[in-house]
Design goal:
Blueprint (H helix, E strand, L loop, with lengths): L1 H17 L25 E3 L11 E2 L4 E6 L6 E6 L8 E10 L5 E6 L5 E5 L8 E9 L4 E7 L15 E8 L18 E2 L5 E6 L5 E5 L8 E7 L6 E8 L2 E7 L6 E8 L5 E9 L2 E13 L17 E4 L3 E7 L5 E6 L6 E6 L7 E6 L5 E5 L8 E7 L4 E7 L5 E12 L5
Parallel strand pairs: 1-3, 2-4, 11-13, 20-22
Antiparallel strand pairs: 3-10, 4-9, 5-8, 5-10, 6-7, 6-9, 12-19, 13-18, 14-17, 14-19, 15-16, 15-18, 21-28, 22-27, 23-26, 23-28, 24-25, 24-27
């Protein structure tokens, strides 16, 4: 009977593959028929029904894989595994669910009490659902639930006759300090004992990784943050200090994000939150570098990306320096300029950066801008007439970073326009 089941699965998988081929032309030409052997390998088993609840979950060992079928849209397949001792009480595993081309499955992990640990379902038909670094406890039992994902309305009633999959559960050794899933919020954050390098994955679309910083930092701490690029992923980095989000950088696809002069109160709970905003990459790890830098006089203070958070400057002559990261903006409120007086606002060139200067209204709307210099050139607003405080915003082209050396902004009394 087992032989008949294996043969049936092999025929179903072959049928799924054939459904993607073009029809053989009328003249009889076309590709030769290829017979694919899907018999289980040394570490591969076949699903055995019934296995639709935890009481009847099919046991699998770490390092093994199982071939199953969820052709019935109401079918649920449940498997269980229990990590064995490897010299510690915590380890991690990689779980991969690979369906045939017409199947859109979901993969859920629950604990021994039936509480959900993690759910992934974002790849669509034929896409592998992957949890690359699931944290597990030695001796604890975990359950993997495979079912069909929600079907779009136009596909209801057209359930494919073949819905096979391969489920693999393998140990996943991690280098150095690494985040483990789930860590998608403050309660489950990966806790660091010291600053340094951390690695992890953007394993699925909008994968959030929360990193909690050490609680031994001082009241006035300045952070330096560098997130390396990950192919195919648009990432962001947010810093939460107590109840306040003090800084956020948003990169472009496959780019790095580098942030400096991020000032926090180290006595409060502080988190660095990484998000894969678009795309995913379960093969290549991200690398996050965290360090403390000494504060520098004359620099802007974050957060200052809105009119309400603008850094104060005293005119009519003033100057300030600062850093920019992708998606960052620095806003300054210059007071002390006589009513009706005009000012020149100038920012010096920064190599390989396309800077932009703007004058803002009290409501934050742009009243005028300068962005004509291009890459590696400065910008200047001339003859800006004051009717109260002067609001100035500094930004850069999307993806540009002012990191190695700060920009320098100057406000000087200007000449009346003729």
């Amino acid at each position: 009977m087992a032989r008949d089941l294996i043969l049936g699965l092999a025929l179903m998988v072959s049928a799924a593959g054939c459904s993607r081929r073009k029809p053989i032309p009328a003249d009889g030409g076309g590709p030769a028929v290829v017979v694919v052997d899907h018999r289980p390998g040394p570490e591969e088993i076949v699903e055995v029904e019934p296995n639709n609840d935890r009481a009847h979950a099919q046991r699998i060992a770490l390092g093994a894989s199982v071939r199953g079928d969820i052709s019935n849209e109401k079918d649920v397949d449940i498997y269980s595994f229990t990590p064995s001792a490897d010299g510690g009480t915590r380890t991690q595993v990689r779980i991969t669910l690979t369906p045939n081309p017409t199947t859109d499955p979901s993969l859920e992990v629950v604990d021994a009490a039936g509480k959900r640990v993690l759910l992934v379902s974002d790849r669509g038909p034929g896409g592998s659902e992957v949890i690359p670094n699931l944290a597990v406890t030695v001796g604890a039992t975990y359950y993997l639930i495979v079912r069909r994902a929600f079907e779009p309305e136009e596909r209801l009633g057209t359930t494919p006759s073949v819905s096979t999959y391969l489920l693999e559960v393998r140990p996943e050794p991690a280098p150095g300090v690494s985040e483990l899933e789930p860590n998608g919020d403050a309660k489950t954050a990966t806790v660091l004992s010291e600053l340094g390098d951390v690695t992890g994955y953007f394993g699925w679309h909008r994968d959030d990784d929360w990193i909690k910083l050490p609680s031994t930092m001082g009241a006035d701490t300045t952070l330096r943050i560098e997130l390396g690029p990950v192919d195919g992923v648009v990432a962001s980095v947010r810093v939460e200090n107590g109840p306040t989000a003090v800084a956020e950088g948003r990169g472009v696809r496959g780019s790095e994000i580098r942030m400096r002069n991020v000032r926090i109160d180290g006595r409060l709970d502080t988190y660095v939150v990484l998000r894969g905003r678009e795309g995913h990459n379960e093969s290549n790890r991200w690398t996050l570098h965290l360090a403390i830098e000494p504060p520098v006089d004359g620099l802007e203070k974050e957060p200052n990306n809105t009119v309400g958070l603008a850094n104060p400057l005293i005119g009519p002559t003033a100057e300030v320096s600062g850093y920019l990261w992708p998606g960052d903006a620095d806003v300054f409120r210059v007071s002390g300029i006589p009513a009706g007086a005009v000012s020149d606002v100038e920012i010096e060139r920064v190599e390989h950066v396309d800077l932009k200067l703007e004058r803002l209204s009290p409501g934050g709307e742009s009243l005028g801008h300068a962005q004509t210099g291009g890459f590696g050139e400065g910008e200047k607003l001339t003859g800006v007439r004051s009717d109260g405080d002067l609001l100035i915003r500094v930004t850069a082209r999307s993806g540009d970073t002012v990191f190695d050396a700060p920009y320098h902004l100057q406000i000087r009394p200007g000449l009346e326009k003729k």
